[in-house]
Known about the structure:
alpha/beta; Endonuclease, Chain A; 3 domains; 15-stranded mixed sheet; 18 helices
Amino acid sequence: MTTFLIITYGILxxxxxLHIILYGSRPVKSLSWLLIxxxxxFIGILLYIVFGINRRRIKIFKLKQTVRRxxxxxxxSNHNIxxxxxxxxxxxxxxxxxxxxxxxxxxxxxxxxxLVLYNGEKTFDTIFETLQKAKDFIHxxxxxxxxxxxxDRLYHLFKEKIEKGVEVRILYDAxxxxxxxxxxxxxxxxxGAKVFPIMPLHFGSFxxxxxxxxxxxxxxxxxxxxxxxxxxxxxxYIKPNSELGIWDDTHLYLKGPAVDNLHRVFIKDYYFASNRxxxxxxxxxxxxxxxxxxxxxxxxGGPDSDHPSIMQQYITMINLAEDxxxxxNPYFIPNSAMLEALRIAALSNVxxxxxxxxxSDSWLAKHSMLSFFEELLFLGIEIYQQKDDFLHxxxxxxxxxxASIGSGNFDHRSFEHNFETNALIxxxxxxxxxxxxxxxxxxxxxxxxxxxxxxxSFGRKLSEGIARFFSPLL
Length: 474
C-alpha cells in the first residue's frame, strides 16, 4: 500500500510540475505553485488543481459554464444597445475608455447623476429610500447576504412591494453567503421573490464553482436607477459586530444611461443562475434619458472574459497618472505587472498614496499585503493604515479627473478568478471630492515610515514571507 501511494504521489507530482511549466502564466506565480506542490504532498497538488490551473489558456479546462457565458456574449452583447460615438475630450480619459470598451464591452455613457456614498449607514439609508419608490421591478445581486437587521428590513420591504405588483429578483453567491440558512431563502421565495444562488457547489462543476466566485454588488430599480460598489448586505457595515469594528466601505448611486450597462451585467448572471430566464426585453431595459453631467463607464470582468479587465483598468490608471494616484483597498496584494507599473510611476515622480486597513479579516491576506510594503516605501510611496474600523473600500482616484469605485480588489482573485464590477467616473468635481475624502482618511490613519518599517522583527518578516508564498491562492 505504501509503495502504491509513493508511486501515485510521484506520478501526480510529475504531472502537476509539467503542467505548471507548460501552462504557467507568469514565472513568479509558477515558482510559487511548484514549491507548494513539492512541499505539501497531495494537498499541494489538490490546491493547484482547484486554485492554480489557468483555465483561460487550456481548452480541456474550459468548463461548460465558461463556454456558455462566452456564447451568451457572442449572441447578446449588442442586444438593443444604442450605437454610441461618444468620446471623452481628455486624452488620458479617452485612452482608458477605449481600452475598457474593447476589453469589457461597455462604452462610456454621458449624462448621468452620481452620488458617492462613503459609509454603510449612508449607503443603506439611500438604498432603502430608493427601493421604496420602485414601481415595476427590483433586481439585487450580492456576494454576501447575511442574516440580521438589514436582511429583515429587506424582507419586509420586498413583501410590501411584491403585494403591490413589483417584481423582485435576488442573486447571491453560494460561497460568500454560505451562512444564509435555507429557512431565510425560503422566506423570500414564499413572498414571491425569485431567489437563486450563483454557481452553487455541484458535483461535476465543483472545480469551477469553488474557485470562481461572483463578487459583484448590484441593485437595479425599474431599469433606471442603480447601485454598485463594495458594500454587501450585512450588519457589519452599520454596527461593530466583531473586533474589526464597523466595515468602512464606499458605494455609488447611479441614475442615467450607465444604469443600462450595469443592468446588463445582472441580466447575464441571472440568465445562468435562473436556468436561462432571459430579461433582455423592453420591460426591463427601458430607454433612459440623460439626467446629469457625469460620464460613467461600467467595467465588468471575470474568468469568462477574454481579457483581465479589472487588472487592465488598474494598471492603465497607474500608467496614465501624471500628478497623483491614490488607492484605497483592503487586500493590496499586487502581481508582478502591477508592481512594475507602481515602480515606474513612483520613479516618474507621480505622487502615490495607499490606504489599507490595520486590522484584517484574513491573517494570510494581511501578512501577504504587508510583505510588499518595504519595497513600496523605499520607492517613496506613502502608505497609511486605517486604525479604527476595517477599511473595505475599493477606490482609486487619479489626477483629479478619473475615479473608480467598485468590487475589485488588488489581488490575484479579483484579477483572474472573481466576477467583479467597477464604475469609472470621468468627472473633475466627483474625483476631487473623493480625493479630499481620501486625504482626510489618511490624516486620521497611521503613516508608515520606511526606516522604522525595515527594522521590524525577524519573526514578522518570516510570517510575511510565508504569507506571500501563498499569494497565488488569494
